[in-house]
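thread: overnight batch results

M.L. [08:02]
morning all. the overnight job finished for the chain we discussed friday. pasting input first so we're all looking at the same thing
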Amino acid sequence: MSWSKLILTVFLLIPSSWTRVTRLNNAIRTAEKSYAEANYAQSVSDHMVLVDEFQYSSSELNFDLGLSHQYSEKVDEALTWYDQASQSPSKMLASFAFNQSGVIMGNKKEYEAALSKFQSALIQDPTNEQARHNYELLARWLKRDEERKNQDQNKPEPSDFAKRKKAEADRLVEQFRFNDALSIMQEAMTQDSTVAAYQDFMTTLQEVVEIDEN
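M.L. [08:03]
and the structure it wrote out:
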């Protein structure tokens, strides 16, 4: 047997799995490179090669796909991958996935769902300070928003007298006479309780007057 035939025979005996492993490793490096370079649209394509061609699966891959989709402004797709990443046996990775889902839900103004995601992130990893910050910030905002809604519902309907006084105060504000405008409203409040309908306006005047005095 000639040397050329021997070499050919040896190569034919190399298992096909070796070739697959080499191609898989190359695909992983390609995906890692586009992700590291923040080329997120390309990162989505490169990571999907791992999923579609190699049936490769891992929690880290799911999270990377979630982040790549999110930064490519494909938030619904991002949520799907974050949901899978949140099932990771790694508590830290699962926490990160829940937190990112919460950010997306918050941006979509689905605040209760976002709060639940942040809470889940903290359950997975109580040391996730970003999730804690997001949870506390959103929880306080929702509480204040609810209080504002209750105040608006409880505001009295201003009388004609109250409306006239508010108009007088508005004219004084146009002249930058904030203290006089506040005095008008405060005096009117002692005469007519429905002036309380303009409490937000009076609070703003009070803040401006205090700034001017300082």
